[in-house]
């Protein structure tokens, strides 16, 4: 299998057909036509394409490669960056980056990318738009508040701001209802199981389904916790370095925030989460550290109910020794 490195940008992508220093590279337009032109230059039996996850810029390329049956890997840019450091790379151009990615594929043998379903892609789009609209809504409300303290608030400006706020509120409400409806129609069983966990509501349940592809991307809860950036870090070396750091924070910061809020709410209604929190606090752990531990417990509970296909029973104690 020959690894092909692809460096993706908004308008174009550079392809390195070999990691060798003087190997040829080609540049294609990042459009449907350009991608099909690139696909005609490779074979699904001989080539393995590797690229960094660059958000929406790489989405069409990954989608069309997967549809064409081309083996594809989509890697965390941090992994490639650290690999470049290990290789003592000092020059950065699109061509060099593409060759470096090809070398990364050859040396690291990255995992295959599993194409997201249309439902997951649609849910993610709605979630992204909702998040951006909420930011605009907060900014507009803050603008209104800052104008109201002035000696004189122009009536026309006030009316314009209030209309914008009302419009944004309606758009957010409609999209949230649409997202909830789509999640329940496409993943009804999983939504019912997840929302049975005390502390997990419809919004968080839908976000977990999006992050896990319907709980198909991960084999266990520990992998999911690491992916979401909630795993504690630890450093030990010799006698001088030995300390526990913060959580790894590698995943979706918005979903982490949702889990943190859900963990706080679960203390009022989830027996196991409350017991976990009280135990850690009694052992002298700071409040935020205990809340993060509760968020991890929520993830384990969510993973358990979905994989075992059983509704959550608050306070249930397993009979297994």
TrEMBL record:
Please identify the protein, giving its name as recorded. Answer: IS110 family transposase
All copies of the Transposase IS110-like N-terminal domain together span 4-142
- Pfam hit, one: DEDD_Tnp_IS110
Please provide the record's keywords in A-Z order: Coiled coil, Membrane, Transmembrane, Transmembrane helix
Q: Which domain of life is it from?
A: Bacteria
Q: Where is the Transposase IS116/IS110/IS902 C-terminal domain?
A: 192-277
Query: Which PANTHER family does this one have?
Result: PUTATIVE TRANSPOSASE FOR IS117-RELATED, TRANSPOSASE FOR INSERTION SEQUENCE ELEMENT IS1111A
Q: Coiled-coil regions in this chain? A: 158-185
Q: Give the residue spans that cross the bilayer.
A: 199-218
């Amino acid at each position: 299998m020959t690894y092909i490195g692809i460096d993706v940008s908004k308008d174009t992508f550079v392809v390195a057909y070999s990691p060798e220093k003087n190997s040829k590279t080609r540049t294609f337009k990042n459009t449907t036509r350009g991608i099909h032109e690139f696909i005609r230059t490779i074979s699904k039996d001989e080539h393995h394409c590797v690229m960094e996850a660059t958000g929406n810029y790489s989405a069409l390329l990954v989608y069309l490669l997967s549809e064409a049956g081309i083996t594809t890997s989509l890697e965390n840019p941090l992994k490639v960056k650290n690999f470049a450091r290990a290789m003592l790379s000092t020059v950065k151009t699109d061509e060099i980056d593409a060759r470096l990615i090809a070398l990364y594929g050859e040396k690291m043998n990255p995992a295959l990318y599993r194409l997201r379903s249309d439902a997951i892609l649609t849910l993610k789009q709605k979630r992204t738009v909702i998040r951006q609209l909420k930011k605009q809504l907060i900014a507009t409300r803050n603008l209104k508040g800052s104008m109201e303290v002035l000696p004189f608030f122009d009536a026309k400006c006030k009316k314009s701001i209030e209309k914008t706020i009302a419009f944004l509120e309606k758009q957010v409400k409609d999209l949230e209802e649409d997202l909830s409806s789509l999640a329940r129609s496409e993943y009804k069983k999983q939504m019912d199981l997840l929302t049975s966990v005390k502390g997990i509501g419809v919004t968080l349940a839908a976000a977990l389904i999006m992050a896990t592809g319907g709980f198909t991307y991960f084999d266990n809860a520990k992998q999911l916790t690491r992916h979401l950036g909630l795993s504690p870090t630890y450093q030990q070396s010799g006698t001088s370095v030995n300390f526990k750091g913060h959580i790894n924070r590698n995943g979706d910061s918005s979903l982490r925030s949702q889990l943190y809020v859900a963990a706080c709410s679960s203390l009022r209604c989830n027996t196991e989460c409350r017991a976990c929190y009280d135990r850690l606090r009694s052992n002298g752990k700071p409040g935020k550290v205990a809340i993060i531990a509760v968020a991890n417990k929520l993830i384990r509970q969510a993973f358990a109910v979905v994989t075992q296909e059983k509704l959550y029973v608050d306070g249930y104690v397993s009979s297994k020794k």
